[in-house]
Design brief:
Helix content: under 10%
Structural class: mainly beta
GO molecular function: metal ion binding
Strand content: 25-35%
Radius of gyration: 15 Å
InterPro entries: ConA-like_dom_sf (IPR013320), Pentraxin_domain (IPR051005), PTX_dom (IPR001759)
Order of helices and strands: EEEEEEEEEEEH
Distance between the termini: 38 Å
Subunit structure: Homopentamer. Pentaxin (or pentraxin) have a discoid arrangement of 5 non-covalently bound subunits.
Main location: secreted
Number of strands: 11
CATH class: Mainly Beta
Shape: globular
Bound molecules: 2-acetamido-2-deoxy-beta-D-glucopyranose
Protein name: Pentraxin family member
Length: 187
């Protein structure tokens, strides 16, 4: 749990792998505040094959993300709190930008990976949980350039998140979660 008061020009990123045959809706990333349980959320709608960025309880749906099970994907969502524009990057391919909502995300935030918060730090639904592997989750308080996102996707030397930094993550495990080192190469 972290206490942050942010002027959020936010963006976040996750590389989940779905090893199970997870065909239902599920959450990748959930950040809640006291006023907005979906302050910053990335959600997969399996019925319509749409990846949904949610900002401050507003959402938009993007089709065209080839989010197949059994392989790694790179999912990034950017949002500019001044213009209110959101964009989704799925395996390095940018969506169109859409207006969603503007103004900062403020107050104390709780970020949960793989479970959706319907209230601040709670309100979970097991039917929406993520099953699979997740790595390299970062969050920044500014909108990344296309070039920075490409570096992230290619696992090159990108600037780690200054809100959430996977290399220095302060986290708590709840339930049956295994943490392990990522296998980068085979010998
Ligand atoms: C992220 O964490 C790594 C490892 O602790 C550290 O070297 C780096 O400076 C951190 N980056 C940011 C932006 O906080």
């Amino acid at each position: 749990m972290c206490l942050l008061v942010l002027l959020m020009l936010a963006s976040c990123a996750a590389s989940p792998q779905d090893l199970s045959d997870l065909k239902r809706d599920h959450i990748l990333f959930s950040m809640a505040t006291q006023t907005n349980s979906n302050a910053f959320l990335v959600y997969w709608d399996a019925t319509n094959n749409e990846m949904e960025p949610h900002i401050k309880d507003q959402k938009t749906e993007y089709g065209g993300c080839d989010y197949k099970p059994g392989m790694w994907h790179s999912i990034c969502s950017t949002w500019d709190s001044v213009t209110g524009l959101v964009q989704l990057w799925c395996d390095g391919r940018p969506s169109s930008r859409r207006f969603i909502t503007s103004g900062p995300i403020s107050g104390s935030t709780i970020t949960i990976l793989g479970q959706e918060q319907d209230s601040h730090g709670g309100g979970f639904d097991s039917k929406q949980c993520f099953v699979g592997m997740m790595s390299d989750v970062h969050m920044w308080d500014y909108t990344l350039s296309a070039c920075e996102i490409q570096k992230y996707v290619d696992e090159l030397n990108f600037t780690p998140g200054n809100v959430l930094n996977w290399s220095a993550l302060d986290f708590e495990i709840t339930g049956r979660v295994l943490t392990e080192d990522k296998q980068m190469t085979c010998h």
